[in-house]
Amino acid sequence: MAHPYKGLRLLSFLFRVLAWVVLVVGTVSGLVVLAGLAAGVQRRGGLPILAITALYFCLFQTLGGIIHLLLTLEERTRKAE
Q1: What residue segments make up the domains of the chain, in order of their start?
Q2: pTM
């Protein structure tokens, strides 16, 4: 039997991928600012970038996980009937 809700499965996967992309890009950006390599930006501006990056990583990972959890719950409920 094919899995229903293919759009939600794709959305869950995309949230997880987006979380890792945000983590990599945000970490690199924050470290560049902390190292003083970014022109026109104060060095201490790197710390909020790193903090917000961690927050968004957790947010996107959690959203992807919740969607996956709900889809798994629905699938197992359907099997039990």
Answers
A1: 16-80
A2: 0.86
